[in-house]
Design a protein that fits this description.
The complex is a heterodimer.
Chain A (H helix, E strand, L loop, with lengths): L3 H31 L1 H4 L3 E2 L2 E2 H31 L7
Antiparallel strand pairs in A: 1-2
Helix pairs in contact in A: 1-3
Chain B lengths: L7 H5 L1 H24 L4 H22 L5 H6 L6 H12 L2 H14 L4 H25 L4 H9 L2 H34 L3 H16 L3 H30 L11 H13 L29 H18 L3 H4 L8 H19 L2 H13 L12 H5 L2 H8 L3 E3 L13 E3 L3 H9 L4 H39 L5 H24 L5 H25 L5 H23 L15 H18 L5 H10 L13
Antiparallel strand pairs in B: 1-2
Helix pairs in contact in B: 2-3, 2-11, 3-10, 3-11, 3-20, 5-11, 5-15, 5-20, 6-16, 6-19, 6-20, 7-13, 7-15, 7-22, 8-9, 9-10, 9-20, 9-21, 9-22, 9-23, 10-20, 10-21, 11-20, 12-16, 13-22, 16-19, 19-20, 20-21, 22-23, 22-24, 23-24
The chains are: A mainly alpha, B mainly alpha.
Chain lengths: 86, 610
């Protein structure tokens, strides 16, 4: 049985990472697109920005966020001694 | 022979095996191109493409046959993260994503992009809230988690019901798509094509369950992504749109907005009399609705598709097959990466197709041209003959206006190679890709339903004493039965592909999202709460769908039948929390189990050979 304080620290840090990840998710899933009409008056590399964010921008953010999340969670698992043996 | 697709050396050699497979497929494409140059007809090439790829998938399916429970349900839990990412991407991207998505964007413009955002962002929820924890849990199916976490047969049974309804809604659309493509490519009637498609699907999954489906899905991903990207890159370079079209179509989007004004979009009257399923362009492409209601409709659709993604059992169960919790997490990121490759190409494809049709300065432009010359075009004649497009000269001026040109959205993917004047071999490739997309999703869905019925309903509830041999026999009989039922429903042609696909996400999120998430993240969630949450969310959501779609009720604040998850989910959440808090907390053993799920290291929570 593993030491309880390490487990508590692991779950606390896991929860904060989840909150940060879902905040990024929320902004690029909902907030940005709520203001699509306004963003469309800005041009980004030729695109109307509101259209761009829906067609490509949010998706790129999602991919990058996930690879970052995987690394961050790995680090938490290792720091707290609960990572799996490879 | 079966050992070839099981042992450790097979896993180590995966990059080599699929590298050779990809090379072999490209050689096949080249061979077809040579045959075309030698004068072989387009029909023959189409048949060869579809038949050859199906034979390969079936071969992999047969080589992966197994009699082991672990291999049948979770591919022996040894699928490496990157390969599981490819398999998930194929599992995920349906015939609708492949064939209909670019067409949807073509017609729906910015509003339709809510699907693209929703069907990618959902993976953030899968990775951060669900997949790693379910992998640690060690279940075979999603209802297996619900049944064990909440205890008792009723939660497990409700989980099976929601899973079966959501997945079955989805699978008929996939079998429909395989039937459509098989019918077109092999030139057989649609009703026969549906059963032919089912035969291919079952050959991939019957003998080897999840193991066979995994290795065929990887093969299908490779075919479908090549088939989607090659025509777009080729067309873009041929038409001078740029080397990597996805990064340079911004100017084309702006040009379309100018052309829409030029052609009088929004000022023309709607023309009546088009054949079923055909539409004229009526919605501006890049313009987003400038009202709170337009924004609300966009984000509610995004929300339903995302929560649905994170609740669909055929996706979640793919992450049960990885060797570790860490690999499950990595695998979600790879899945999204592989899905992204297609999803960020679809808007580019829609843009270029639109530009080619609308721009009078391009040789391919048809709007504003004399109808006589348009009707002389080969691709117009070919697709008009099969009722995929239609021209009605409503004002009899002999010039084609925007409101006089009708087509089916599917054309954007299916006919763009021809519009741009690419060789026929590309059309054959596209047919093979669409087939791969529809087959791989159908396989995942059928397996999800059959596994839930055989493992959760039959083995866990009806006959817990059943022997391995009998369990696997029951699983296969169910697979066959459900597949046949799906093909039968598909052959009746009841719903359009899109309506059915969106509903599957709404059913799944209404019934399963909160019971799964709170089962992991809220120790206080108990059996009574889960029962209330699943049954309440699912029933109220279904009632709302019925009332809005068939009952003549006006949608509440813009929540139409595509978004009924917005009604089911809050009901599910509130019921689950309130009922849980009103009833005793789960016993110490259950709470300890939840603690165990949250830690990656150590054995799976339930016995691996349960």
């Amino acid at each position: 049985m593993m030491d309880t304080s390490k487990r508590e620290e692991h779950w606390r840090r896991t929860k904060s990472l989840m909150v940060v990840t879902l905040t990024i998710w929320f902004i690029f899933s909902f907030v940005v697109h709520w203001f699509a009409a306004g963003l469309n008056s800005v041009t980004f590399a030729g695109w109307p920005l509101g259209f761009y964010m829906a067609a490509q921008g949010s998706e790129i953010v999602f991919v990058l966020t996930l690879f970052w999340f995987v690394r961050a969670q790995d680090k938490i698992d290792r720091d707290c001694g609960v990572a799996e043996e490879e | 022979m079966a050992g070839k697709f099981a042992g450790g050396s097979f896993i180590e050699n995966l990059p080599k095996i699929y590298g050779m497979y990809t090379g072999g497929f490209l050689v096949f494409v080249l061979l077809m191109a040579i045959l075309e140059q030698m004068g072989v007809g387009a029909d023959t090439i189409g048949i060869l493409f579809v038949a050859f790829t199906i034979v390969i998938y079936a071969g992999i399916g047969v080589l992966s046959r197994t009699m082991a429970v672990d291999a049948y349900y979770v591919a022996g839990r040894q699928v490496p993260a990157v390969f599981n990412g490819m398999a998930t991407a194929a599992d995920w991207m349906s015939g609708a994503s492949f064939v209909a998505m670019a067409g949807g964007i073509y017609f729906g413009g910015h509003g339709y992009l809510a699907f693209v955002v929703g069907w990618t962002g959902g993976y953030i929820l899968v990775a951060s809230l669900m997949a790693p924890y379910l992998r640690k849990f060690g279940c075979y199916t999603v209802p297996d988690f619900i049944g064990t976490r909440y205890g008792g047969n009723l939660p497990r049974f409700l989980g099976v019901v929601v899973l079966a309804v959501a997945s079955f809604t989805y699978v008929t659309a996939q079998i429909n798509a395989t039937g459509t493509i098989a019918a077109r490519a092999l030139q057989i009637p649609f009703e026969v094509g549906v059963w032919f498609g089912l035969l291919g699907i079952l050959l991939c999954s019957m003998l080897g369950g999840m193991r066979a489906v995994t290795w065929t899905q990887v093969a299908q991903y490779i075919v479908l992504i090549i088939a989607y990207l090659v025509p777009v890159f080729w067309m873009s370079n041929k038409q001078g749109f740029g080397l990597i079209p996805q990064f340079v179509y911004g100017d084309a989007v702006q040009r379309i907005t100018e052309l829409e004004t030029l052609h009088g979009l929004g000022t023309l009257d709607a023309v009546e009399g088009a054949k079923g399923g055909l539409r004229a362009l009526s919605v501006p492409f890049a313009t987003a609705g400038d009202s709170a209601m337009a924004s609300w409709k966009f984000v509610t659709l995004v929300a339903c598709m995302m929560m649905g993604t994170a609740s669909l059992p055929h996706i979640l169960m793919r992450y049960f097959t990885t060797p570790s919790v860490r690999a499950a997490r990595q695998s979600v990121a790879w899945s999204l990466m592989f899905i992204f490759l297609l999803y960020f190409t679809a808007p580019a494809l829609a843009t270029f197709t639109k530009l080619q049709i609308l721009d009078p300065n391009l040789a391919t432009g048809i709007i504003g041209k004399p109808i006589e010359s348009v009707l002389a075009l080969e691709w117009i004649q070919k697709w008009a003959a099969v009722d995929f497009l239609q021209i009605i000269d409503a004002n009899s001026d002999g010039i084609l206006q925007l409101n006089e040109f009708f087509m089916r959205g599917d054309i954007v993917v299916l006919a763009t190679p021809e519009i741009a004047g690419l060789p026929y071999v590309i059309s054959g490739l596209v047919a093979a890709g669409g087939m791969a997309a529809a087959m791989s999703t159908a396989d995942g869905l059928l397996l999800a339903i059959a596994n839930a019925l055989s493992h959760d309903l039959y083995y866990k509830i009806i006959d817990p004493e059943a022997e391995t041999k009998k369990r696997l026999l029951v699983a296969r009989v169910l697979l066959l039965g459900i597949g046949a039922a799906g093909a039968f429903v598909a052959s009746l042609k009841l719903t359009s592909i899109l309506g059915a696909v969106a509903w599957a996400f709404d059913f799944a999120c209404s019934g399963l999202f909160f019971p799964i998430v709170l089962g992991i993240w809220w120790k206080r969630a108990n059996r009574q709460g889960a029962i209330a949450g699943m049954a309440g969310g699912f029933l109220v959501g279904t009632w709302y769908l019925y009332m809005v779609r068939w009952g003549g009720m006006d949608p509440w604040i813009g929540i139409d039948h595509l978004r009924f998850g917005m009604i089911g989910m809050p009901v599910s959440l509130v019921l689950m929390v309130v009922v849980s808090l009103m009833t005793p907390e789960p016993d110490a053993e259950t709470q300890a189990m939840v603690d165990e799920i949250r830690v990656p290291s150590g054995e799976t929570v339930i016995d691996s050979s349960h």
